[in-house]
Amino acid sequence: MFNTEIIVKSLPMLLQASVWTVIYSLTSVAIGFCIGTLMCAAGLSASRLGRAVSAFYVSFFRGVPLLVQLLISYYCLPLIGVNVPSSVAAVGTLALCTGAYIAEILRGGFLGIPPGLIEAARMVGLSRAQILTRIEVPLAVRFTLPSLVNETTMMVKASSLISVVGVLELTRLAQNIATSTFQPLEIYLTAGAIYFVINGAITLAGEFAESRFRMEKAR
Amino acid sequence: MAERPIIDVRGVWKRFGDVEVLKGIDLAIAKSEVTCIIGPSGSGKSTLLRCIAFLEEYSEGEIYIEGELLGFSLENGKRRRVSDAEVARVRRNVGFVFQQFNLWPHMTALENVAAPLKLARGIAREDAEKRARRMLEKVGLSHRAEAYPSQLSGGQQQRVGIARALAMEPHIMLFDEPTSALDPELVGEVLQVMRDLAGEGMTMAVVTHEMGFAAQVADTVVFIDHGVIAASGSPQQVFRHEENPRLRQFLQNYFERNVFWQGSDAAPAS
């Protein structure tokens, strides 16, 4: 009944496709982190416009299902004359979506920074941008690391959705193999196991980073 | 004095909403002078210091740092807030030491001192670290360069804070209650560093409750009460001969709190 042979045969292909899953999801998180930082800074700034843009951005990308966002960008971008590979559009959409969540995560971290640390930076002549990148972001990341790791694992899983707009990654390939071999259970179990291992590695990396940061706390 | 004061505060008011914290402060500090600012809590002394650093925008009046108007530009008698970069330029020679030290917790002592040199002054890494080590040595902490702030005592953290400010080669150092957050046995090491600095001719303005330090080191003592300068002069004048009843009361409270052994035979009061 349970066909282990098909697993062994398709595993190399699935592993290859999972490389794309890792690339797409980590790239999205990296870009999303930059977007999230800017949106978070805008949301906490004195500028009315900045706060409005940030609030709209966050509410849109948190309020609309990611699948719908992907379909919108897939059908919409060609209409407005933007011709990019569907993988680029998909990664962009993932990044915008996770950026909204990361902005909200970082907001908590930013608010936890003692204002005196910023004043000290201003008094030694650091610019706004330097204060953001050298003081605020490193501290906010330390405060919010568990949530950021969590968001990254969510994005690895969410990247499976981009299979619907024709981007080849782990889930898409699993679908292809499943329909051609008529062995869906074995294939999807394998794909699931690969996702599980990827996220296990990310969680471990997060714990390693946390232990590094603990050095900075009291003995 | 013939020379223009290095810090010149003229008619400065500061309001937080309806609350008037500073009500027309005039204060001139000459080069190489040590000015200690004393007063009851809530009197506005820290606010004054923060205005001189432009960590607070003053509501009215003028503050000149080395002859340049701080934070504003005057056009046809109207004042306009200048850009942050312009503020940073005018106060580039002002160092600030905080009550809570405010070291960056994700950097070692050395990095806390070296990072501003690299970032704000564009000094190459190696040179910045060399200068940072010299500064840490100056405050007696070269052996703790690699420690994170959380691994340092309060007194050590404050000395790193002083080193960080000194590394920028300021002409003026502002101290906002630098020893108030310290355990009593750690106060001395910080005051010693400040004393050395005064001896080198640094211009200093110090908000403090350390009357002994003020009496020994200050050229001028300024007593602030309810947002105005209620008395000022040499330590002699202020501590010995001042007639102002509020100041007498303030000093009386201070001495009573600090005397624990009176007379030769009497037991300490229980």
TrEMBL record, chain A:
One Pfam family of this chain: BPD_transp_1
SUPFAM superfamilies assigned: MetI-like (SSF161098)
InterPro entries linked: AA_ABC_transptr_permease_3TM, ArtM/GltK/GlnP/TcyL/YhdX-like, MetI-like, MetI-like_sf
Transmembrane helix among keywords: yes
BP terms from Gene Ontology: amino acid transport
Compartments in which it is found: Cell inner membrane; Cell membrane
Molecular functions (GO terms): transmembrane transporter activity
Membrane topology category: Multi-pass membrane protein
One GO CC annotation: ATP-binding cassette (ABC) transporter complex
Predominant place of localization: membrane
Domain of life: Bacteria
ABC transmembrane type-1 domain location: 14-206
Alphabetized UniProt keyword annotations: Amino-acid transport, Cell membrane, Membrane, Transmembrane, Transmembrane helix, Transport
Transmembrane segments annotated in the record for this chain: 20-44, 56-75, 87-106, 187-209
Protein family membership: Belongs to the binding-protein-dependent transport system permease family. HisMQ subfamily.
Protein name per Swiss-Prot or TrEMBL: L-cystine transport system permease protein YecS
Gene that encodes it: yecS_10
From TrEMBL, chain B:
Matches recorded under SUPFAM superfamilies: P-loop containing nucleoside triphosphate hydrolases (SSF52540)
UniProt xrefs under Pfam families: ABC_tran (PF00005)
Record-level GO cellular component terms: plasma membrane
GO molecular function: ABC-type amino acid transporter activity; ATP binding; ATP hydrolysis activity
Membrane topology according to the record: Peripheral membrane protein
The keyword Membrane appears for this protein: yes
Protein localization: Cell membrane
Keyword ATP-binding: yes
Similarity comment: Belongs to the ABC transporter superfamily.
Protein name in UniProt: Glutamine transport ATP-binding protein GlnQ
Organism phylogeny: Bacteria, Pseudomonadati, Pseudomonadota, Alphaproteobacteria, Hyphomicrobiales
